[in-house]
Amino acid sequence: MIRANLGAYLALNAMAYGLFLVGMGVGLLRPELTAANAVSLQQDGTLELVTWAMSSTWLFSLIILAVNTVGLSLVHVLLPSAIVPFGGIAVFAFWTFDTGVTLAPINEVAALTMIPHSLTVLIEFQAYVLVLLGAYRLGMSWLRPGTVGARTRRQGYVHGLRQVGRLSPPALALLVVGAIYEAVEIIHLVPLLLS
Protein backbone atom coordinates (compact mmCIF):
# COMPACT_ATOMS: atom_id res chain seq x y z
CA MET A 1 0.00 0.00 0.00
CA ILE A 2 2.92 2.35 0.64
CA ARG A 3 4.24 1.76 -2.90
CA ALA A 4 0.81 2.46 -4.37
CA ASN A 5 0.55 5.70 -2.36
CA LEU A 6 4.22 6.70 -2.28
CA GLY A 7 3.58 10.39 -2.94
CA ALA A 8 1.08 10.65 -0.07
CA TYR A 9 3.35 8.59 2.21
CA LEU A 10 6.33 10.87 1.55
CA ALA A 11 4.19 14.01 1.96
CA LEU A 12 2.83 12.75 5.28
CA ASN A 13 6.37 11.98 6.45
CA ALA A 14 7.50 15.47 5.45
CA MET A 15 4.53 17.00 7.26
CA ALA A 16 5.01 14.98 10.46
CA TYR A 17 8.76 15.41 10.84
CA GLY A 18 8.73 18.91 9.34
CA LEU A 19 6.10 20.29 11.73
CA PHE A 20 7.87 18.62 14.64
CA LEU A 21 11.13 20.36 13.69
CA VAL A 22 9.37 23.67 13.09
CA GLY A 23 7.78 23.33 16.54
CA MET A 24 11.21 22.70 18.05
CA GLY A 25 12.54 25.76 16.25
CA VAL A 26 9.70 27.88 17.63
CA GLY A 27 10.39 26.44 21.09
CA LEU A 28 14.05 27.41 20.79
CA LEU A 29 13.15 30.93 19.65
CA ARG A 30 10.38 31.30 22.23
CA PRO A 31 11.44 29.22 25.28
CA GLU A 32 8.53 30.66 27.26
CA LEU A 33 6.19 28.55 25.08
CA THR A 34 8.11 25.39 25.99
CA ALA A 35 7.98 26.38 29.66
CA ALA A 36 4.22 27.03 29.39
CA ASN A 37 3.69 23.55 27.91
CA ALA A 38 5.70 22.04 30.77
CA VAL A 39 3.55 23.90 33.32
CA SER A 40 0.41 22.69 31.53
CA LEU A 41 1.61 19.05 31.76
CA GLN A 42 2.19 19.54 35.47
CA GLN A 43 -1.20 21.17 36.08
CA ASP A 44 -3.23 18.57 34.18
CA GLY A 45 -1.63 15.71 36.12
CA THR A 46 0.34 14.22 33.22
CA LEU A 47 3.68 14.72 34.95
CA GLU A 48 2.39 13.08 38.14
CA LEU A 49 1.09 10.07 36.17
CA VAL A 50 4.42 9.73 34.34
CA THR A 51 6.38 9.87 37.61
CA TRP A 52 4.12 7.24 39.19
CA ALA A 53 4.25 4.94 36.13
CA MET A 54 8.05 5.10 35.94
CA SER A 55 8.23 2.69 38.90
CA SER A 56 7.97 -0.16 36.37
CA THR A 57 9.32 -0.30 32.83
CA TRP A 58 6.48 -2.61 31.72
CA LEU A 59 3.75 -0.52 33.33
CA PHE A 60 5.21 2.62 31.79
CA SER A 61 5.38 0.86 28.39
CA LEU A 62 1.72 -0.13 28.62
CA ILE A 63 0.65 3.41 29.51
CA ILE A 64 2.70 4.84 26.63
CA LEU A 65 1.19 2.25 24.27
CA ALA A 66 -2.36 3.06 25.43
CA VAL A 67 -1.80 6.81 24.99
CA ASN A 68 -0.25 6.36 21.54
CA THR A 69 -2.78 3.85 20.19
CA VAL A 70 -6.05 4.91 21.79
CA GLY A 71 -5.38 8.56 22.61
CA LEU A 72 -3.48 9.69 19.57
CA SER A 73 -3.98 7.18 16.74
CA LEU A 74 -7.62 6.29 17.33
CA VAL A 75 -9.17 9.35 19.01
CA HIS A 76 -7.12 12.13 17.41
CA VAL A 77 -6.48 10.73 13.91
CA LEU A 78 -8.86 7.95 12.89
CA LEU A 79 -12.06 9.07 14.62
CA PRO A 80 -12.02 12.64 13.25
CA SER A 81 -11.12 11.24 9.80
CA ALA A 82 -14.10 8.88 9.99
CA ILE A 83 -16.39 11.88 10.56
CA VAL A 84 -14.75 14.54 8.35
CA PRO A 85 -12.47 13.48 5.48
CA PHE A 86 -8.83 14.13 6.44
CA GLY A 87 -9.94 15.71 9.75
CA GLY A 88 -7.50 13.65 11.79
CA ILE A 89 -4.59 14.75 9.62
CA ALA A 90 -5.25 18.36 10.61
CA VAL A 91 -5.54 17.41 14.32
CA PHE A 92 -2.29 15.46 14.10
CA ALA A 93 -0.53 18.38 12.40
CA PHE A 94 -1.37 20.62 15.36
CA TRP A 95 -0.32 17.93 17.86
CA THR A 96 3.00 17.42 16.05
CA PHE A 97 3.84 21.12 16.08
CA ASP A 98 2.89 21.41 19.77
CA THR A 99 4.98 18.33 20.62
CA GLY A 100 7.96 19.91 18.88
CA VAL A 101 7.51 23.05 20.99
CA THR A 102 7.25 20.93 24.16
CA LEU A 103 10.41 18.90 23.40
CA ALA A 104 12.53 21.83 22.20
CA PRO A 105 16.07 21.49 23.63
CA ILE A 106 16.02 24.84 25.44
CA ASN A 107 18.61 23.78 28.02
CA GLU A 108 21.33 21.17 28.50
CA VAL A 109 19.03 18.64 30.18
CA ALA A 110 16.47 18.84 27.35
CA ALA A 111 19.22 18.62 24.72
CA LEU A 112 20.78 15.53 26.33
CA THR A 113 17.35 13.94 26.72
CA MET A 114 16.65 14.36 23.01
CA ILE A 115 19.69 12.25 22.08
CA PRO A 116 18.06 8.91 23.00
CA HIS A 117 14.53 10.30 22.53
CA SER A 118 15.22 10.99 18.84
CA LEU A 119 14.90 7.25 18.16
CA THR A 120 11.54 7.23 19.95
CA VAL A 121 10.36 10.08 17.72
CA LEU A 122 11.57 8.25 14.61
CA ILE A 123 9.82 4.96 15.50
CA GLU A 124 6.56 6.41 16.78
CA PHE A 125 6.22 8.94 13.97
CA GLN A 126 6.57 6.13 11.42
CA ALA A 127 3.64 4.41 13.13
CA TYR A 128 1.66 7.66 13.06
CA VAL A 129 2.45 8.15 9.38
CA LEU A 130 0.94 4.72 8.65
CA VAL A 131 -2.18 5.74 10.61
CA LEU A 132 -2.23 9.05 8.71
CA LEU A 133 -1.91 7.16 5.42
CA GLY A 134 -4.95 5.13 6.45
CA ALA A 135 -6.83 8.37 7.20
CA TYR A 136 -5.76 9.74 3.82
CA ARG A 137 -6.90 6.60 1.98
CA LEU A 138 -10.21 6.68 3.87
CA GLY A 139 -10.77 10.29 2.83
CA MET A 140 -9.84 9.68 -0.81
CA SER A 141 -11.98 6.54 -1.06
CA TRP A 142 -14.88 8.36 0.55
CA LEU A 143 -14.69 11.52 -1.57
CA ARG A 144 -13.71 9.83 -4.85
CA PRO A 145 -15.16 6.31 -4.70
CA GLY A 146 -14.59 5.72 -8.41
CA THR A 147 -10.80 5.73 -7.86
CA VAL A 148 -11.12 2.55 -5.79
CA GLY A 149 -13.71 0.86 -7.99
CA ALA A 150 -16.66 1.72 -5.74
CA ARG A 151 -19.97 2.95 -7.15
CA THR A 152 -21.12 4.98 -4.14
CA ARG A 153 -19.52 7.07 -1.40
CA ARG A 154 -20.72 4.51 1.13
CA GLN A 155 -18.88 1.72 -0.70
CA GLY A 156 -15.85 4.00 -0.95
CA TYR A 157 -16.03 4.67 2.79
CA VAL A 158 -16.15 0.95 3.58
CA HIS A 159 -13.21 0.37 1.21
CA GLY A 160 -11.29 3.13 2.99
CA LEU A 161 -11.99 1.52 6.39
CA ARG A 162 -10.58 -1.75 5.04
CA GLN A 163 -7.40 0.09 4.02
CA VAL A 164 -7.16 1.56 7.53
CA GLY A 165 -7.46 -2.02 8.80
CA ARG A 166 -4.61 -3.18 6.56
CA LEU A 167 -2.31 -0.41 7.81
CA SER A 168 -3.20 -0.85 11.48
CA PRO A 169 -1.16 -4.03 12.28
CA PRO A 170 2.21 -2.62 11.13
CA ALA A 171 1.41 0.69 12.85
CA LEU A 172 0.56 -1.17 16.06
CA ALA A 173 3.78 -3.20 15.84
CA LEU A 174 5.81 0.02 15.56
CA LEU A 175 3.90 1.55 18.48
CA VAL A 176 4.68 -1.51 20.64
CA VAL A 177 8.39 -1.26 19.81
CA GLY A 178 8.30 2.50 20.36
CA ALA A 179 6.54 2.19 23.72
CA ILE A 180 9.04 -0.36 25.04
CA TYR A 181 12.02 1.65 23.83
CA GLU A 182 10.58 4.92 25.18
CA ALA A 183 10.05 3.43 28.63
CA VAL A 184 13.57 1.97 28.70
CA GLU A 185 15.00 5.22 27.38
CA ILE A 186 13.28 7.46 29.93
CA ILE A 187 13.76 5.19 32.94
CA HIS A 188 17.27 3.89 32.23
CA LEU A 189 19.13 5.76 29.44
CA VAL A 190 18.28 9.39 30.21
CA PRO A 191 19.39 9.16 33.88
CA LEU A 192 22.73 7.72 32.70
CA LEU A 193 23.23 10.65 30.34
CA LEU A 194 22.31 13.19 33.00
CA SER A 195 24.46 11.72 35.77
TrEMBL record:
Keywords in alphabetical order: Membrane, Transmembrane, Transmembrane helix
Name of this protein: Stage II sporulation protein M
Organism: Saccharopolyspora karakumensis
Domain of life: Bacteria
Transmembrane segments: 7-29, 49-67, 74-95, 115-136, 171-194
